[in-house]
Amino acid sequence: VKDTNADHCASHLGKAIGIGTLLRSTLHHAKSRRILWPTDVLLQHGLSQEDVLRGRNVAVAKEVTYQLASVAHVHLDK
């Protein structure tokens, strides 16, 4: 059964779940020296992957986390 509204909802839900999973897996990936946050968002905040891995600029890393979580929330509201 093809339903455009259901497809639209599923698309936004999938994006929100994907972003949430990305955020939840940050510590796991960091233990392997991988940061999967979008580079453009890191650059917007003047943060590097190495900063995140070394625990530098924690306040800025929290801002990035909040921004990414906010994007997920926007998808849930659609």
TrEMBL record:
<protein>
    <submittedName>
        <fullName>NADH dehydrogenase (Ubiquinone) complex I, assembly factor 6, partial</fullName>
    </submittedName>
</protein>
<dbReference type="InterPro" id="IPR002060">
    <property type="entry name" value="Squ/phyt_synthse"/>
</dbReference>
<dbReference type="InterPro" id="IPR008949">
    <property type="entry name" value="Isoprenoid_synthase_dom_sf"/>
</dbReference>
<dbReference type="Pfam" id="PF00494">
    <property type="entry name" value="SQS_PSY"/>
</dbReference>
